[in-house]
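Example (one chain per record):
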Amino acid sequence: MARIRLSPREKAVAAATAALREVDFPHLCRQLWAAGWTDKKPTGLPLQWRYTTPDGAKVFYAEAELMEHNEEQGHGDQDDEHGRGNQVGKHGRGG
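Predicted structure:
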């Protein structure tokens, strides 16, 4: 089997994606939907989901943007009602 080499840029993207997966994204989505956020499946050329705040003031076009916003708001390390906290989870409905 041939070895596939990654460029430094691809390695950085892979590392960022791995760090992003450390947060239980489906759980975060459930919390946001309960708070009134909406999401929309991509249509046409875009490949990323669109996430909108309840008041429609902000729109996030990538899972990473949504996670950054969540961390800026201070919600990065909250445990859910079952005490699972942030765990590696299967990717949910997002991008």
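Caption: Residues 24-80 form one domain.
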